[in-house]
Specification:
This is Type I-E CRISPR-associated protein Cse2/CasB. Pfam families: CRISPR_Cse2. It comes from Rothia aerolata. InterPro entries: CRISPR-assoc_prot_Cse2, Cse2_sf. The protein is mainly alpha-helical. The protein has one domain: Peroxidase, domain 1 (Orthogonal Bundle), CATH 1.10.520. It is about 60% helix and about 0% strand. Helix 2 packs across helix 3. The longest helix is centred in the first third of the chain and has 23 residues. The radius of gyration is 17 Å and the shape is globular. About 35% of the residues are buried.
Length: about 200
């Protein structure tokens, strides 16, 4: 199953758009948004067939954007890699956003960088969890470790880019592109761990 650059870009935009819409509704106190987040949280790590409400929310068309045409299923019983990536990313976002007022999606702030920042805050044992995710052989294993890391990021209120994360989850399901993601996450982790914000105070 191919993962073209155009499809990945479409997937990033689609997931980010879903999150922006959902967060705005959640902030407005919309009960439907709270229910959607609750349904998505229960979907983490589970087959979409076991969570039809969450699955329908991910793939259903909205007012101005439907699931990217080039990533849709083609009359097959199982979700495509990109559909599963969108479903998984949105489910993890729902875990991350739970009870938080600040948006836990931050465009341009990547997953590996966020985990590096988390570890730099004095929790070195978390690095082992990140290593376990990087070494996971199955998508289910990746999601298991990702959920743990997202819960820890939530505790420290560290957001990351869920659009880019969804694109990475799609690539991780393809043996030809998995290594690219692992390499970049390692690099991003190092940057996040070593990065120190500049002190802008004037003396």
């Amino acid at each position: 199953m191919s993962t073209s650059n155009s499809a990945v870009t479409g997937l990033e935009d689609f997931v980010a758009h879903k999150i922006h819409r959902l967060y705005a509704s959640y902030q407005a106190g919309n009960s439907s948004a709270r229910k959607q987040l609750s349904d998505l949280r229960r979907a983490v790590g589970q087959n979409p067939a076991k969570n039809p409400l969450a699955w329908q929310y991910v793939i259903s068309p909205e007012e101005d954007e439907a699931f990217p045409e080039d990533t849709k299923y083609r009359q097959q019983d199982q979700p495509t890699s990109k559909e599963l990536a969108a479903y998984s990313a949105l489910a993890l976002y729902a875990v991350h956003q739970h009870s938080e007022q600040r948006k836990m999606h931050a465009a341009g702030h990547y997953f590996g960088t966020a985990v590096g920042q988390l570890v730099s805050r004095g929790t070195p044992s978390i690095k082992r969890r990140f290593d376990s995710l990087m070494q996971a052989r199955t998508f289910e294993g990746i999601m298991y470790h990702a959920r743990t890391l997202v819960q820890l990021l939530k505790q420290q209120e560290i957001p990351f880019d869920y659009g880019k994360f969804a694109a990475d989850l799609a690539k991780l399901q393809n043996p030809k592109t998995k290594a690219q993601v692992i390499t970049r996450w390692s690099r991003d982790f190092t940057y996040g761990f070593s990065y120190q914000p500049k002190n802008t105070d004037e003396n």
